[in-house]
Amino acid sequence: MDSRERILTALSHREPDRVPIHDGPWPATIARWHKEGLPESVSPAEYFGYEIVFTGCDLTPRFPVEVLEETEEYIVQRTATGAVNKNFRDLSSTPQLIDRPIKSKQDWPPIRERLYADEARINWDGMRRQIEEAHRRGKFVTFAGSYGYDTLQGYMRSEHLLMAMATHPDWVREMIMALAALNMEMAGMAMQKGIEFDSFWCGNDMGYRNGLLFSPDTYRRTHKEADQMVVSFFHRHDKPVFLHSDGNVCELIPDLIEVGFDCLHPLEVKAGMDLRELKERYGERLAFWGGIDARAMAAKDASLIEEEIASKFEVAKVGGGFIYHSDHSVPPNVSFERYRHVMALVHKYGQY
Predict the structure, then answer these.
(1) What pTM does this model have?
(2) Within 13 Å and on the Cβ side, how many CA atoms surround 186?
(3) Distance (Å, rounded) from C-alpha 216 to C-alpha 30?
(4) Are 190 and 143 in contact (CB under 8 A)?
(5) Averages of pLDDT over each 10 residues, the chain, 352 residues
(6) End-to-end CA distance of the chain, in Å?
(7) CA angle 238-243-246, nearest 5°?
(8) d(CA 167, CA 4)
(9) Domains of the chain, with CATH numbers?
């Protein structure tokens, strides 16, 4: 099987030849690996055979990007959403949020009017070359987008957004629906012009270490209509839909299944997402991508990561419906030698 066949088989809850493989090391991790034996001209995706290729387009209001301050350690930048972030140059952590353009309802209309679909949002030649090369190598291609709570954090401070979700859910739903519509319109435009991708990936972190960032009822009032609209759109085009959501989102899984999401990612272990329990409870209705504790990868005792992979693969791979991934991005305390060992274990225990 090639990667595309392998992943589509797993997503259809059938067993492929082996568990599909994809992962996401931090840039600082990749820099370390290049010093420890990963050839400079080779990416981890090439070296380890990651099987999913991401493509996408500009889904922002396209405000001018500006560098406001920079040092050897960090850079402060105004983004295309109008937000101001402080980021470490090695991208070793999430950005510090300094300012956001939406502070009240009156700030939304000027942004909304910029969220229209047009051909300039896509690098057509680049996207075609990327996808043609990926499919030539048998890779699985997903169109990446976002439109929910996590995306709105690029427009509003988290505390203001959470308050608005509780006090003005109709307004928040309106913003999410507008962003969702742009995702669909741009993906639809790509398909109309012959761009052949295999799935849609939606990024929307809705949980943290101790549970959801907002209640299931708030999700239903603000997000669910948009999710149903987007999932239905891609299903009409025979494309499965992945949801990426960090943190513990167990309470939302019945709603996510009802909406029609095909696969949930990345299943953060430290937040209480247990791949084995999720597989046993929901595995006939939802596929899982991730759930392998990155902390075990860095442990001094290498037997910990072998036990992690062996015990979880034994349950998760049965009947298909599982793709390997760490439970978050691979951190820079994981050496190249250790990660090579991890990949050998993934191949060993991932065979059917």
Answers:
(1) 0.95
(2) 29
(3) 37
(4) yes
(5) 98 98 96 98 98 98 94 91 88 79 97 98 98 98 98 96 98 98 98 98 97 98 98 98 98 98 98 98 98 97 98 98 96 97 98 98
(6) 13
(7) 170
(8) 44
(9) 3-60+105-350 (3.20.20.210), 64-100 (no CATH)
